[in-house]
Amino acid sequence: MQKTAELFAEVRREERFNLLEPEAKMVCMEYGIPVVRFRVANNKEEAVRFAGELGYPVVLKIISPQVVHKSDVGGVATRISNDEELRSAYERILATVKGNAPEARIVGMLVEEMAPESTEVIVGSTKDPRFGSVLMFGLGGVLVEVLGDTTFRVPPITAEDALEMVREIKGHRILEGIRGQPPADVQALVDILLRVSALLGDHPEIKEIDLNPIMVYPKGAKAVDARIILE
Ligand code: ADP
Ligand code: MG
User: Fold this and answer.
1) Which of 96, 166, 190, 191 is most exposed, with minimal Cβ within 10 Å?
2) How far is ligand 1, taken at its centre, from the CA of residue 129, in Å?
3) pLDDT per position as a tens digit, 189-218
């Protein structure tokens, strides 16, 4: 789609490979992939204003081309519930990131609605030398890291393929609702998988996508983090 193609061209011109998180989220939005509402603040008072517009609680995140894993360098603050907390979180993030990653050029601060906690899943892609882009689905959080509970398909995929992906991971029962929990909206996940497949089809220059995590609810799902890396 138009805006995504233009954005990728601009990123290339700037000799960058990693899209900034708000850029990756714009791409998601163009492809109809649901993401949390966000604003990009250039200073603390702007962040306060945006938090007011979005409504507390909010999340603050560092935006830097050099920072790929934001929480590793202290670049994420969640559950911010008023202006005072926001101002101190803003300063704390700047100071911590400067300490942990002195080389990082900070280009702004992401102010986001805080998505309610829920089951976390991951949708992503990597490149295989033989197959090209490969689409990945897995449960998020500890499960995906410890158990490697993931499944893969070569795009383009059909809705049946997407449903199979969701159902064949080891932890799929977590999505069906265990111990009285309501089942997760599997159709919303199928939809996201199809949309990421379409994005990969349009843009073979994508080296890696990482929607990690996506919060899935009894109705709907939302990506709270998005990373896109180009070849
Ligand atoms: P990174 O993966 O670069 O460290 P994330 O954006 O994934 O940073 O944020 C780290 C964690 O903070 C996420 O895994 C999620 O648990 C939580 N988080 C981030 N953004 C939000 C949000 N908007 N709403 C709720 N939780 C969030
Ligand atoms: Mg993340």
Assistant:
1) 96
2) 30
3) 999 999 999 999 999 999 999 999 999 999
Nearest CA to ligand 1 atom 22: 114
Cβ proximity of 119 and 216 under 8 Å: yes
Reduced to 3 states (helix: H, G, I; strand: E, B; else coil), residue 14 is: coil
Residue nearest to atom 2 of ligand 1 (CA): 69
Query: pLDDT tens digits for 47-104?
Result: 999 999 999 999 999 999 999 999 999 999 999 999 999 999 999 999 999 999 999 9
Q: For the CA atoms of the chain, what is the radius of gyration?
A: 18
Read off the tokens for 193: 């998988």
How many Cα atoms occupy the beta-carbon half-sphere of 192 within 13 Å? 32
